[in-house]
Amino acid sequence: MGDGDGPLNVRPASSPRRRFLLPCVLAGLALGGMMYRHHVHCRAHQERVNAMLEEAQCPVQPSGLRSAFSQWPSAGLSSSDKELYVQRLSKAIQLDTVSYDDMYETDPTQAPEDGGDPRWLVHERFNKWKEQEWPLVYTHMQVEYITKYSTILTLPGRDPTLPPVLLMSHQDTVPVQEATVDEWDQPPFSGIVTAPDARGRHWIYGRGALDCKSLLVSELNALERVIRERLERGEDVRGERTVVMSVGFDEEVMGIKGAGNNSLVLQERYGQDSFAFIIDEGSTGIENEYGLKVASLGLSEKGSLGAKIEVDVPGGHASKPPRHTGLGILSLLIAALEAHPNPHTLHSSSLYLRYLTCLAQHAPDMPSDLRKRILDPAQWPALADSLAESDELRAHIGTTMAANVARAGAKTNALPEHSEAIVDSRVGWDDTVADVQARYAVVMKEVAERLNVTLDAWGEKLVDGVEGRGRIHVDLSWPSAGREHAPITPSEGPVWELMAGVVRHVWGENVVVAPKGMIAGTDTNYMKPLSKNIFRFRAVPMDEGENVHTVNERVTDQALFGITQYVYELLVNLEGWRE
Ligand SMILES: [Zn+2]
């Protein structure tokens, strides 16, 4: 994953508000009895604008936390804890737990001697290592392995009536491409810890450093710290409310065996909507934008739609081809879809607009023109157009489409009878899967009609073409069948205040905590039935962790301690907290 957004660059525009002001001024100049009517009209208009701005407001920035923060060492961690935490991440990286795409098809519970895929076995080693490395956690928490390798750890609460909280992470990683191994500054599974850089930071290198072994290790470190402190104080190790940790082992290949099955167990055990909140990895963290430190919490994630387009035509010798081969028809369809991009939009409840509003309200160095555009609803459509010029920002304000896979033809001199492509769409917050399907159907229908080729899409016959010309068949591809975007986590109320308060306590009261939507997916997709409050967050400053899914994935020791502190403070603040 990784949608680090880069600097926000949008075209300047002139005359903010003029479009609203001018009619009002003209109306004001109108004579006689008309004046009163226009006055009422302008006031109603202004009220609408105010309501939109109110909805788009940056959320309240809570400060001051309720619990005993003295427990987190104010002078920082002891050098032995620091050493321990760094070595744990290093070791986690060295235990290579790569997921390969084709593992999706295999059953991890099947032993290799019975024909199972031996590549899953690394998780047995990894789980053994976790048990040995965090003995306090594994002694005091209930440990369950679901689907053989995915973990559910439970620290039951003293008060079973309080909704539990869920900490999520995953222990698998994406592979390292063979051809890129030489480009790494340190070998990708070495877990090497560098000498301090100019800012005194040690970098920990390797696949999974950021996605997401640093979160996994930090959650275990935080739980260990909480348990150890309670034992040292002679207290019950249990907190007021139950804490559950769910660790998946196949997030990079859909996550259904790990988080998917963990979720079924948790739903069965606790019921729907039973958790106070859930935290997991995210694709955005703590960035600097226009002189502001902003922590973006992923309050939702986009949906997805995999469309499989198949074209079947009569075959034959390539020496006497029709005007369009099957592959040609497939290409025309893809070209037509690309020529009709999904719409983009910004409105008062758009997550990305609300992120921009936080910048407009708090970032000291934002150009005043841009600030005015963000705070003027009349300019939002034009602003959306400007943002859409950037591929990265467009992904935040609409549904995207990418034709990624195509197969056709077996031989140079033979016409391809069967051609197929998979088009991957990430469904935005203003769309449903059905909206996107309908839009694609309209575009493809036009192509099919022009070519006189039969088209059936999404189970409906749309064009009855000339017999023998061929047939286009469009359906959901497997395994990424259609999925709607996740509900949007509220950015007000006690859960928001706890979350945002902890973030500001850990990274500084000058940090603004802003809503954002995730454009990639996480394992939280499976946990949606469990809570309305899901936060996807990479708890790392942008310059302290780099290169998710690519060469030189790395994270600093400081960043690692920050994640541990964030999880720890969330846990200790649960005492006495009520949602
Ligand atoms: Zn991840």
UniProtKB/TrEMBL annotation:
Residues 300-449 form the Peptidase M20 dimerisation domain. Keywords: Hydrolase, Metal-binding, Protease, Zinc. One of its GO terms (biological process) is proteolysis involved in protein catabolic process. InterPro entries: ArgE/DapE_CS, Pept_M20_carboxypep, Pept_M20A, Peptidase_M20, Peptidase_M20_dimer. One of its GO terms (molecular function) is metallocarboxypeptidase activity. The keyword Chaperone does not apply. The keyword Protease applies. Zn(2+) 1 binds at residues 211, 252, 549. Pfam families: M20_dimer, Peptidase_M20. The active site is at 172, 251 (proton acceptor). GO terms for cellular component: fungal-type vacuole lumen. Zn(2+) 2 binds at residues 170, 211, 280. Belongs to the peptidase M20A family. This is Peptidase M20 dimerisation domain-containing protein.
